Amino acid sequence: MTPDTATVELLRNHQRVFVVGLGPATSLVDLLEIRLTRSARHVIPLRTYGRDILEPLLLMTKDDLLIAFGFRRVNPYLKIVLEQANRRGASVILITDTLGELYGKNATVVLSARRGPVSAFHSMTVPMTIVNSLLLALSAADQERIMGKLDELDEMREDLLRLEKTGHSSK
Fold it and tell me: How far apart are CA 156 and CA 17, in angstroms?
């Protein structure tokens, strides 16, 4: 699977990325938080239920990107996040199985992630493949910048390892 250029450019051209996913989709939020941070993006994860999901939305602007995961049924938390992104003019990548028709009007791009029949076990394999494809495509498109950040990360890891070996850790 190769993501289209427009979707990759959305990722490439936004420095701050909000990522919303609840329930089992929090694993996808965690993956994107780690990998996009390594790609020099400021990631704001939204993985909580209730009112706690609202405060970070105050920071969202038209210069931001929202990556939203929505699976199987209508969720009031996803709905409010999508509405706020639209109200604030943020771009939206929606990754969903069955909610594209319902929420698609709120998204700049909708990526279909079929996870099996409604009555069957729903795997995260397809959404995870989509996320990994997006991340690999971003790495290819923004290789110089991302490789520089990964080199920085390697240097920090080496510094930490050196400090741990000399007994300067906080243990």
Answer: 24
